[in-house]
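Batch manifest, entry 17 of 40.
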Amino acid sequence: MRIANLNGRAVILRGDRAVDVERASEGRFNADPQSLFADWAAFETWARTTDATGEPFDEAQLGAPVPAPRQVFAIGINYTAHAEEAGYPPESVPVTFTKFPSSIVGPNHVVELPEGNVDWEVELVVAIGAEAHRVSRDDAWNHIAGVTIGQDLSERLVQMQGTSPQFSLGKSFPGFGPTGPWLVTSDDLADRDDLAIGCALSGQQMQGSRTSLMIYDVPELIARLSAVCPLLPGDLIFTGTPGGVGNRMSPQRFIRADDVLVSEIEGIGTLTTQFTSR
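Output type: structure tokens
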């Protein structure tokens, strides 16, 4: 099942048609896409049984499928190839940081580039559907509403300022958390733990891997994060990026105002992000 944010309203996508959740449920569920997570189990049960057919929709009107998460967790160094290119030992414990929620945007967003060196990082993004606190890895997927595509855009100069890296600050400029184009429930994926992932910048392939090559897979991330703090309905987890980022290339390559970034994950689709200068 695909759930989306269409012009600010929650919809279920069926083929090339969109079912407006508030109208089809006769007000049982709110039009606000974020509100669905307040009782995801009830919404999902209703969504799978409604016979509403919906109407044609324009993909240009899609917004972030999870537009206002309370918490955004992000994982660094979670693929061996990225650990190697970044100079970390392959058995490194993944770094955990946050992207501030104000950075979250949807597909086809035009990101205004700040001064500095802006880099790409394609990632599988997990949306929490039921509160998870001290859950086991075996139970982890039961707390997940669905997955989407994300870009952990990073301004490398701010990120590396100071005696300790400023990961959260350098990765939270406006528009630095593109997500979408929709949320996909795990039963729609051929293998939820092994998906092809990659991105291309202005037609040149930059990253390509599989999510099965994560150092810590999705269930392990849920177990480890929830052991420390509750994961709340509607929270997002950026699960880490594979090798192939711009600041590790020789010569380095960073995003320019005329670039188009296309990110893909098997079974989910394509996320397109454009850029402009200040």
